Amino acid sequence: MRVVDKLWDEEDFLQFVDIVIGAYPGMLDGSQPTKEQLKALFIHNQNNDEAIHYYGLWEENNLVGGMRLHDFEMNLLSKIIPVGGVGLVAVDLLRKKERIAKELIEHFFKAFLEKQVHFVALYPFRPDFYKKMGFGYGPKVHQYLVEPSSFPKGPTKKHLKYVTVQDQHKLADCYKRVTMKRHGMFLKTESELAAIFKNPQNYVIAVEKGDTIQGYIVFSFTKQSDTNFLLNNLVIKELIYETPEALLELSTFLNSQADQVARIEWNTQEENIHFFLGDVRNGSNDLIPSVYHASTVSGVGLMYRIINVRGFFEELKTHNFNNQTLTFKLTVEDSLLPENNQQIVMKTVDGNMTIVDNHKCDVEMIIDIAELSSLAMGVVTVQELFMLSKVKISNEQFIQKLHQLFYVYDKPMCITAF
């Protein structure tokens, strides 16, 4: 018999650490001090951060897997909603391919459904595995590797200052203001904020005007060469800005690092940031036919899932669906959560949506929960899904109406790692 429950005592956590090291060998070297440090970190997180919870899966009193759950808050189309997160899903090396990870994820769903949370997210160890479990793709990340001179030089950097832990509340206020304006962003937890300043390799520089931080950058350096200590890259870990002026001052700082830095690595979800940069080539000198210069490496990562369709759309009662007027039947296919396998009739008048029962519909849309999750977040459009055969629409005359209804002008962005 299998049981999923919270990890409580030190022995549980130590066993979980062993499982984590086996599942993610690249993270740690497996030495005893490292295990002890990791165990202490996990216990500290659970005891001191109300948003973090560790769970294990036991079979016949043997711990065979575990995970870390997070209570997040996210900006969903200008409304802050609760979101469940899961990370560090790990299975004992001897117990792979025994559906343990699936049972952990099912418990993850259950835990947040019991909290009346309708939406969850994760970073996949394998996107195809979680796609089959109903998770839809989030925004892509684009990794730039450019010379410092590619960042525009502005008229000043006089408002730049180092930020220390004493000023972290100002940094947190800046991040929150940006989050409240940006669809998809997660509010920063206390432990997230603290981690920035606990890492001795991090530099934190902010644009401060008056007593207010209007933008900041968290970065570190990495060696570009094992034989030449003068060759280094600068890695941007977080770049937040409220105004064009704040971005330009931070850019001026990056531009001025040319004497010490060979390349700057910037991972961003901004699709059009190449309009801001100068030379966006990544130094490989590769050409993509016919003449497209290699600039970024892109990757899929964060994945979303609606675990209660009706509850999720109830969260959007105050959202205007682009002034559209349409009554449609939404038929959701969800092989993992039977309660989501349902039909919902949505009536939208001048963009205001209500869920109605037994109402005559203009059109029916049939969609898998994974694609619906991405569509609702604005990662993909109805028109794109239709052309890719990922949505069925009973009357093609209404494709454009549905496209406009679900269209999200500000694509989601999320820089929270978990």
From TrEMBL:
Record field: transmembrane: none
N-acetyltransferase domain span: 3-158
PROSITE patterns, alphabetized: GNAT
SUPFAM superfamilies per the UniProt record, alphabetical: Acyl-CoA N-acyltransferases (Nat), SCP-like
Protein name from the UniProt record: GNAT family N-acetyltransferase
